[in-house]
Amino acid sequence: ARPISSREKVSVKDVIREVVISLSHFGKRIDINCQDVTLETDRKAFYVMVENLLRNAVQWAELQVKISCKDLGERVEIVVEDDGVGISKEDEEKIFEPFFSKRKGGS
Fold it and tell me: Quick check: 32 and 21 in contact, CB under 8 A?
């Protein structure tokens, strides 16, 4: 059974900064352009989601990753871009399949 999540006000920018610091050992430049946005969410789950997005971008980036976020009223938009080669047309449909990976050793 999953533990009951605890919802709290979370600064999106603060979580992103924490994740960026934790990924600094990859040696890639990570630019953050975020509005001061808060969410009411499970902080741990949100951190894991941001970490997964950024780790993937950093692993595939050549030199740089850009992350931006903005308040859209009822939603928050988070955009992650990297300067890697991108996803091939043949893999575009597969990326949402559980455990799909192009890395050696899998996901």
Answer: no
